[in-house]
Amino acid sequence: MARKFELRKEIELPASPEEVWQAIATGPGITAWFRPMEIDPNSPDVIAWDPPRKLTIRTPEAEDGTTHAFEYLIEGRDGGTSVLRFVHSGILGDDWSDEYEGATSGGWDMYLFTLAQYLRHFAGRPASYVEAEAPAVGGWDKLRQRLGPIRLGDQLTIDLPGAAQLVGEVDYLTEHFIGLRTPDDLIRFHERSAIGLPIAVSDHHYGTPTDPQRRTESWRSWLSAALDQREQSAASASR
């Protein structure tokens, strides 16, 4: 049976309402912390467009009745900061896993934190975005072992095949996510076995634009090696 759901989030952001609007309502802005997409204010999917205060997007209804709505409410605060209130709601059809809401809620916590980190450390810098998946579902414990006994604030080094060594600070750490911030990157590892998907890595790079295909293949190679103890020499990551 189809069911309604609603996820509510609130976060204080180190940016003015106008800067937050640029980050959530423009293609380059949303690519810099979420993923590449274009937002057309004239699209029928955009049901509220009130810069820099409110943006609401609703997806068309699928055959099983599934639909999603994403509402962003921005409120300015003293000192050039803002509060973003975000609501993801909708209807899920019969085929959606019972784990969806919990996994999605945790995912939004991570992405909104990434938005704050982007605005704090990389605001206005264009991003190259890539994502890659592990070969199969599972292996999160192996990945954690490969990275070492990390804690928030620890320095982490990743030798990415065919690319420059990545050195940065662990800026996000939960049961299902690991985040790394380097001088030019926000990198996030996602554990997604609860919804039947393999581990993924997302990489927002704010330096010189990278070759997306080559960067993706580098991350696939690293994940494959990190999850197979027989290939320890293929790539390395250490504190």
Automatic annotation (TrEMBL):
Matches recorded under InterPro entries: START-like_dom_sf
Gene3D superfamilies registered for this protein in UniProt: 3.30.530.20
Full protein name: Activator of Hsp90 ATPase homolog 1-like protein
Lineage: Bacteria, Bacillati, Actinomycetota, Actinomycetes, Propionibacteriales
